[in-house]
Write a structure and sequence with these properties.
Residues 481-592 form the Histidine kinase domain. Residues 322-374 form the HAMP domain. GO terms for molecular function: ATP binding; phosphorelay sensor kinase activity. The structure is a single chain. By secondary structure, the protein is of the alpha+beta class. Among the domains are: 80-206, Beta-Lactamase; 349-394; 396-597, Heat Shock Protein 90 (2-Layer Sandwich). The chain has a five-stranded antiparallel beta sheet with strand order 2-1-7-6-4. It has a five-stranded antiparallel beta sheet with strand order 9-8-12-11-10, with helices on both faces. The protein has helices at 2-11, 14-79, 82-89, 96-114, 146-151, 203-208, 248-254, 288-291, 295-339, 354-394, 397-412, 416-434, 443-461, 486-497, 530-534, 555-566, 594-597; strands at residues 122-127, 132-134, 140-141, 159-166, 169-170, 177-186, 193-202, 220-224, 230-232, 257-263, 266-275, 280-287, 440-442, 465-471, 479-481, 504-513, 516-523, 571-577, 581-589. It contains 17 helices and 19 strands. Helix 2 crosses helix 9 and helix 11 runs antiparallel to helix 12. The longest helix is centred in the N-terminal third of the chain and has 66 residues, at 14-79.
């Protein structure tokens, strides 16, 4: 049955498939929309509530961090205060006036530190002799246990926070709950222990930092320690109560974020954030019904939008299917024409959608295919012509005649050694040029051909011409087209050095830069006039033009050969200063086998 339905669907036209698919999809949408609208909207509202509450808890955490950081800073200020250090370091005295002066000096110093610091409830100093000094306004102070002194005995600057506890002092007639910092301090001069400082913060001040943060009409934020005991809560009756047995506390202790829990038959959103400094957990609790009270309105909007979408989609179904299938039929017919070899066809689809883009790209593809075929034909033709030109240039009658005349002249002068040398060099040159008929040779062979050519000319011209090779050995391994350098060197000699007075010199350099071969041929000849240099690659430089002495292939033909074999991004660049010399730079790819060039 399933196979029959699948076969039936695949046999339908695109128009029928789209209509059927839309009908099924819209039917499912109507059925599912009512079911999922409530869940979606509830999920969105709960996620938003989690995000907002988490931001509020982060704000509480940041406020706490500022308060406790400041408390530690003020404690450090107090223990390094010069007056406090001096008074505590003084020897014990029985003189009541001296005792009073010490107490007054200490109280003034402590008051100066904590005045206007609204979060500091009390600042108390205990010395090692049992004396107690405070910042003022404290009715009575109970000494702290010796255990606090012992905690810091082995550290230079011991510091300990004590979670929420009943204060060991009265402020007026008010006993209060505080969070206290205890820090041992030593003499700044000798390092000898001097005493202990206590800085206490009223828990009500901590609770006031977040009591006005709104997370719902009946939502609450409070802080518990790792044992589930409430350490801070704007609701005073909740302080020191335990939530350790609640369902949500184990989760809140191990996780950050939000989760829904059921308590007393009602769902609540619980959002938690850890406060590692005291192993506290900041918790926000909001009833779910407060979060989702507007959910019914959102659900109705979802249903209304869904119904409107169904209506519009049904109207558009017919228009969409017709707009898709009509141009597809045209494309289908045109593709068949191309398959039959007709590359002159063109799709005239004006739409700007995907089908229009497909038609546009199809036209480009057909045009490019036609152009590519024409280019292949033309390139094959040019390649054969250039290969013929290479073969013709391999036997350069002009160069051969001049060399033979030089041999005759040397023989008349009885310079037999030079005759033998020039004949050997000539043989080496043509052996390299012929290269067993291959058009692609290594750079090493190409440089040997060029060097042989220069040696022949050096014998002919004597000390009137010199040359130098500076080739990076790594260059030798790469492949290039044959007779690449010799025509450029010939051009430098016959058009640069021949008309120069004095000695001529040619430099040939080769380097690998990134993935390219960079070769340069420089001469100190007469240079190229600016107007001729600008038109050098524009003028027709025919191999058949015998009225011009182009020096081997000519620069233009060499540049065209490079571009034909390797691509338009490679070729020659000419830099010349008239009267000073010329540099021809050749850019080639780094090819290690002949197939890469073909």
């Amino acid at each position: 049955m399933r196979m029959k339905l699948t076969d039936y669907y695949y046999s339908l036209s695109i128009k029928k498939k789209i209509t059927l698919s839309f009908t099924l999809a819209l039917s499912l949408l109507i059925i599912l929309l009512a079911i999922i609208a409530f869940r979606i909207s509830s999920g969105i509202l709960i996620d938003k509530a989690i995000e907002n509450t988490a931001q509020n808890l982060k704000l509480v955490s940041e406020k706490l961090e500022i308060i406790f950081d400041n408390a530690e800073n003020y404690s450090k200020i107090a223990i390094t205060n010069s007056t406090i250090q001096e008074v505590i370091s003084e020897p014990q005295t029985t003189n009541e006036l001296e005792k009073y002066n010490k107490y007054y000096a200490m109280q003034e110093s402590l008051r100066n530190i904590v005045d206007a610091k609204t979060f500091v409830d009390a600042l108390i100093v205990y010395d090692l002799h049992g004396n107690i000094y405070d910042s003022g306004n404290l009715a009575s102070i109970r000494n702290v246990s010796e255990d606090y002194f012992k905690k810091f005995a082995n550290s230079m600057y011991g510091l300990e926070w004590l979670n929420t506890h009943a204060s060991n002092y009265l402020k007026g007639n008010d006993g209060r709950n505080v969070i206290s910092l205890f820090q041992k301090f030593n003499s700044a001069k000798t390092g000898v222990p001097l005493g202990l400082i206590q800085l206490s913060i009223d828990e009500r001040y901590i609770a006031n930092q977040y009591s006005n943060i709104n997370i719902g009409t009946s939502g609450n934020i409070f802080i518990v320690n790792k044992n589930g005991i409430v350490a801070s809560d704007p609701r005073k009756d909740k302080l020191y109560t335990s939530i350790g047995n609640s369902d949500y506390f184990p989760w809140a202790l191990r996780n950050e974020g939000g989760k829904v829990f059921q308590m007393d038959g009602q769902n609540y959103l619980v959002v938690s954030r850890s406060y590692p400094r005291f192993d506290w957990v900041i918790i926000g609790i909001v009833p779910i019904h407060e979060i989702t009270k507007d959910n019914q309105v959102l659900t109705e909007k979802f249903i209304g939008i869904g119904a409107l979408f169904v209506l519009v989609a049904l109207i558009l179904t017919f228009l969409i299917t017709r707009s898709i299938t009509s141009p597809l039929n045209v494309i289908k017919k045109t593709v068949r024409d191309v398959q039959e070899g007709n590359l002159d066809v063109k799709l005239n689809i004006k739409s700007r959608d995907e089908i229009g883009a497909l038609a546009k790209e199809f036209n480009k593809m057909v045009g490019n295919t036609k152009l590519l075929m024409n280019n292949i034909i033309e390139e094959q033709k040019q390649k054969r012509e250039y290969e013929l030109a290479v073969m013709q240039s391999q036997i350069n009658p002009h160069f051969l005649y001049n060399t033979l005349e030089s041999i005759c002249g040397l023989a008349d002068l009885k310079r037999n050694a030079d005759v033998v040398k020039i004949v050997n060099q000539l043989a080496h040159f043509y052996r390299g040029v012929l290269s067993k008929g291959s058009a692609i040779i290594t750079m090493e062979d190409e440089i040997v051909i060029t060097q042989t050519y220069l040696e022949i000319l050096k014998i002919r011209y004597g000390d009137q011409m010199t040359y130098a090779l500076d080739i990076d050995p790594v260059v030798y391994q790469y492949k290039t087209i044959k007779l690449l350098l010799q025509p450029i060197v010939e051009n430098s000699i016959y058009h640069g050095l021949k008309n120069k007075r004095g000695k001529g010199h040619i430099d040939i350099k080769g380097r690998v830069k990134e993935d390219r071969l960079i070769l340069s041929i420089s001469d100190n000849g007469v240079g190229i006039p600016e107007e001729k240099r600008d038109n050098l690659f524009n003028e027709r430089d025919s191999l058949q033009d015998k009225n011009k002495d182009k020096g081997g292939f000519g620069l233009k033909v060499t540049d065209e050969r490079i571009k034909l074999y390797f691509g338009p991004e490679y070729g020659l660049e000419i830099h010349s200063v008239f009267g000073e010399g010329t540099t021809v730079t050749i850019t080639l790819p780094t090819l290690e086998k002949e197939g890469d060039a073909e």
